[in-house]
Amino acid sequence: MQRIDFISLVENYKVVFLDSYGVLKNHKGLIGGVPETIEYLRDRGIVVKILTNDASRSRQQQVELFKSLGLSGLTTGEIITSGTLARLFLEDKRIKGKIGYLGTENAAEYILHIDRDSIPIGAIDLENCDDVAAFVFLDDEGFDWNIDINKTINLLRMKNIPVVVANSDKLYPVSPRDVAVGTGGIAKLVENILNRKFIHFGKPDSQMFMFAYNQLLKEGQFSKSEILMVGDTLHTDILGGNKFGLDTALVLTGNTVESSVDSLVAATGIIPDFICKSITS
Amino acid sequence: MQRIDFISLVENYKVVFLDSYGVLKNHKGLIGGVPETIEYLRDRGIVVKILTNDASRSRQQQVELFKSLGLSGLTTGEIITSGTLARLFLEDKRIKGKIGYLGTENAAEYILHIDRDSIPIGAIDLENCDDVAAFVFLDDEGFDWNIDINKTINLLRMKNIPVVVANSDKLYPVSPRDVAVGTGGIAKLVENILNRKFIHFGKPDSQMFMFAYNQLLKEGQFSKSEILMVGDTLHTDILGGNKFGLDTALVLTGNTVESSVDSLVAATGIIPDFICKSITS
Amino acid sequence: MQRIDFISLVENYKVVFLDSYGVLKNHKGLIGGVPETIEYLRDRGIVVKILTNDASRSRQQQVELFKSLGLSGLTTGEIITSGTLARLFLEDKRIKGKIGYLGTENAAEYILHIDRDSIPIGAIDLENCDDVAAFVFLDDEGFDWNIDINKTINLLRMKNIPVVVANSDKLYPVSPRDVAVGTGGIAKLVENILNRKFIHFGKPDSQMFMFAYNQLLKEGQFSKSEILMVGDTLHTDILGGNKFGLDTALVLTGNTVESSVDSLVAATGIIPDFICKSITS
Amino acid sequence: MQRIDFISLVENYKVVFLDSYGVLKNHKGLIGGVPETIEYLRDRGIVVKILTNDASRSRQQQVELFKSLGLSGLTTGEIITSGTLARLFLEDKRIKGKIGYLGTENAAEYILHIDRDSIPIGAIDLENCDDVAAFVFLDDEGFDWNIDINKTINLLRMKNIPVVVANSDKLYPVSPRDVAVGTGGIAKLVENILNRKFIHFGKPDSQMFMFAYNQLLKEGQFSKSEILMVGDTLHTDILGGNKFGLDTALVLTGNTVESSVDSLVAATGIIPDFICKSITS
User: Which of D143, D154, D155 to mutate to test binding with chain C, by most C CBs within 10 Å of its CB?
Assistant: First the structure.
């Protein structure tokens, strides 16, 4: 575990995988200096991929959101979301029937896509739901928590169908002080009540890294040792990057802060190869 | 594990501890024959105590509810609720400050009582909450799940105060088909997000049985071997009764049904001494 | 959470419940000054009870061990062990058949007693074990871990019998540097493999405190508010004492040390009423 | 979930991924008819890959073991073991120092390889272990459980180094009646004691499937929909295959048996696409 500034470190790699929230942006917007760092990486020919646990927006919407914050020039091919993996899973599984979901219509439209017959939990009739063939936890918004979480539990008690969690994050920051329960936290509640395990997508799971790596191989020949994974969270970014066999760098601009980084690494046993203050210095 | 009819079994005991939901009543009202069984017990001089995981009503309200369903003559002294234990805990701990809570005003009034300065989570100002000195999960109703569960999480991230779960049931039945997430399930979500353990009251915890037993000793001299614990749920009634050293009888009028009782006992390793179809035969 | 010296604090109580390891003694022997503190408590008429998670020795052997270390005058009535609770449980349950066990012969003799037909796991014939009616995890010594833990798992896969863990401690210190897996840790491995929950005795479970309190009431009238629980471990001594409604004091002579006490209290949410350096100052 | 005979089913695929124990062999040796089935697959040009959670033997030793049981003609390229993944991880991580391990010398030789400086836990000096830079759980044999598991715990308390579990199976069958704690079970005990999470390799983790798939792509172009995953265990073979996006077939010649398959699928929510009696009919 070596402390080093990001700019010196990144020279040794041909590719950087970047987490989004806590690395590129925070609740106030872009982290200062990020556009300059991204431009520096592009100038050096270092390939950038953004790996984010998110199933609420399309990749195109992600690109536009970054643009509105002041980071232009990203392409959809540079963004890998857990929602994409959930969608591919459902396509591979060739589900015959409707896909029930918990989340917003926007998420359903962009994640589940138009060729799918999807239905929000609120519109499912529990007396008559033979045609619901899979279920997806998409987002923590777009439904009534009390009514619709209970309805989801009762649906899944009746029907033994594949259940997918399109974003495994248990909580996410909404301000410097406050967090909110995320899609993964709601799914965990339901798993706990039902005593079942759903299929979760998102870091630290290897599939997210594998997907990014396979995308990368379409652009050229890269070995894992040429990739640096950068994130602000030990349990997702660093654990997942380590396991996939990448070098990992923890930045201190998000979930993990200077004052507790050493004790957290010791307590969790999740060890980044490098610690950098931020990606902008 | 012996199959026997309840009336033959109960003759061997001086006291019966009865679970409420699934033993005395279900979603439709009283289970048929229950008033007659209770009368039979009284005629034989067998002491009755009802042990229920509930923190939404006062014991007087419980008595009245049973009366409205057709079971008269219960006294508050015959009812032991997990809410009572939570209240006693808060009294013993001599909390100096307000007690925040998640639940209904009725629950707060009856469980936390008037001499306490209690405040619902919705009324707490997170910018100014120095005076909140403890927090209680009282009920699954009386608040906005999305807004107020998240607010509870943020309150408890800021303030390291005693947190009490006044009813540890994770879910409860609301119809023959449907269940709902209970107070204990909501508390579990928050514990999972915060990675902390709260203080839970209710079966199977020994304190509920100890409290009932101590109440009993005020009425006379009884040994544990003279008490039969009767319930419909392996993980609460039977596990708790077994551990406290009581003989236990599982009835099949609630959570556990004839068709799966053998496989459930084998899978959980929770073994009742007796299995009875119901307390009414 | 108030920092105070023990001698000033204890004046306010009529009874102290003391953990043993980390409070009275450590790997080197008695903690310096302990005999004087105990004498001081006796002089002031403060009742002493030692609550220890241990099922390897009889209470008489505990008294003798303390004496050999230099603390004389303890009586068996002052010592409450988790092993005693396990034994009472097995007596209450009126097990008909042999009690299998994992542990030493000494533990079996003193914990399970002579009127019981007990048999070590090594002597059980899995082809012919119809007469084994209960099983007890007694100690982490006295058997071959590889052979006998696997044999225990296979016995319990075949036979659905009550299983008791007579000491729930997962690990214990053996030197300033080293720990060892305890009885509770071995039981946890077996529970994890079998996906079952055994009946555990020992702090933080309320039964240990209830038993001590009931013993106390035979000696006089004491309210819970007159008792101080003192221990070195948040998860057992303090959590258990808090839940039982006692005032709690954490000492820093064992598992919890000055440098990390604040962060541990914050991380666990287990809050002692008082923090004392030791019981000897 | 469709019941179908394997021979009819397999015609629809170009590749089969086969679990080993419970599919190809059991405690008595090869399952009857397996050599004929493998020959049939070869005749039809269906590619075979064996995916096994094992870190005790080299792939060459696996080939020889199958040959000695009567299944000739397997090649090392057809065998994917969790041990291989663990080895690759350690190579990618470019560990500088010795790799400590729990297991047999044979496992260390074949899994960790000669160019690594590896050292069994028994030979590590805890007073002088600065040069131990990683640790691997390789096997459940080749060490003293009591002494060496405790020593492993103390080593890992002192040193915050990457820890790898080369076979995540918690238990494995040793006879029709008996099971034994596996490498994954021992690792779980240590994780539970230390409250840390190690890096586990083996099904159901996606990396095992990804590795097999990448090996496959070196031999030709195959889409996931052309691959059938076949196994006897819901939690590893089926869960992992499902998540990776393969069609899955559960066979009833190992861990899962006809009498309980329906209730197990319902209880776990892990749903194979197909159920076959065996791969030999």
Answer: D154
CATH code of the domain made up of C2-53+203-276: 3.40.50.1000
Sorted by sequence, the CB contacts under 8 Å of residue A9 that are 6+ apart come out as: A228, A249, A274, A276
Tell which of C126, C141, C144, C153 to mutate to test the D interface (max D CBs under 10 Å). Answer: C153
Q: Do D269 and A198 count as a contact with CB atoms less than 8 A apart?
A: yes
Report, as an integer, the average pLDDT of D215-224. Answer: 93
Return the higher-pLDDT residue of D53 and B91. D53
Radius of gyration for the alpha carbons in chain D, expressed in angstroms and rounded:
19
Average pLDDT along chain A: 93
- Give the residue from A178, A117, A118, A181 showing the smallest Cα distance to A149: A181
- Fold matches, D2-53+203-276 and D94-200: yes
Residue D31 DSSP class: P
Q: In Å, how far is B91's CA from the nearest CA of chain C?
A: 9
Summarised one tens digit per residue, pLDDT across range C73-96 is 999 999 999 999 999 888 877 788
| CA D36 and chain centroid, separation | 24
Question: Residue length, chain C?
Answer: 281
Instruction: Confirm if C280 and C33 have CB atoms less than 8 A apart.
Output: yes
**Of the partner residues B163, B207, B224, the one whose CB lies closest to the CB of residue C206:** B207
Tens of pLDDT along C17-71? 999 999 999 988 999 999 999 999 999 999 999 999 999 999 999 999 999 999 9
* Residue numbers in A near B181 (CB within 8 A): 149-150, 153, 189, 193
CA torsion, ordered D120, D121, D127, D130, to nearest 10 deg:
60
- Asked if C89's CB is within 8 angstroms of B243's CB, the reply is yes
Give the chain C residue nearest B86 (alpha carbons): C243
- Provide the b/e sequence for C196-213 (b: ≥16 CB within 10 Å): bebbbbbbbbbbbbbbbb
Distance (Å, whole) CA B267 – CA B260: 10
Structure tokens that stand for A33 in this block: 């200096």
**Strand duo C247-251 + C227-231: pairing:** parallel
Residue C250 has pLDDT above 80, yes or no: yes
Greatest pairwise CA separation for chain B in angstroms: 62
- Residue B125, CA atoms < 13 Å, CB-side half-sphere: 4
Q: Do A160 and D244 touch (CB under 8 A)?
A: no
B87 within 8 A of B112, measured Cβ to Cβ: yes
Pairing of strands D227-231, D199-200: unpaired
User: CA A267, A268, A269, A275 torsion: positive or negative?
Assistant: negative
Measure the CA–CA gap between B74 and B66, rounded to whole angstroms: 8
Boundaries of every domain in chain D:
2-53+203-276, 94-200
- Enumerate residues 6+ apart whose C-beta is below 8 A from A242: A248, A270, A271, A272, D93, D162, D199
For the record, the structure tokens of B218 come out as 């005020």
Task: Supply the DSSP string of D140-163, one letter for each residue.
Answer: SSSS-HHHHHHHHHHHHHH----E
Question: To probe the interface with A, which of D160, D193, D236 has the most A CB atoms within 10 Å?
Answer: D160
Q: How far is A264 from chain D (nearest CA, A)?
A: 11
Residue A257 phi/psi, 5° resolution? Answer: -120, 160
Where does B84-200 sit in CATH, by number? 3.40.50.1000
Token readout for C115 is: 């009127």
- Nearest residue, CB atoms, D206 vs list A205, A242, A245: A205
The correct answer on CATH 3.40.50.1000 for the domain covering D94-200 is: yes
Measure CB to CB from residue A181 to each of B178, B185, B193 and give the nearest one: B193
CB atoms near residue A215 (< 10 Å): 15
DSSP state of A5: -
Q: Distance between alpha carbon C151 and the CA centroid of its chain, in Å?
A: 26
Say how many CA atoms lie within 13 Å of C247 toward its Cβ. 20
**Closest chain B residue to C196 measured between Cα atoms?**
B268
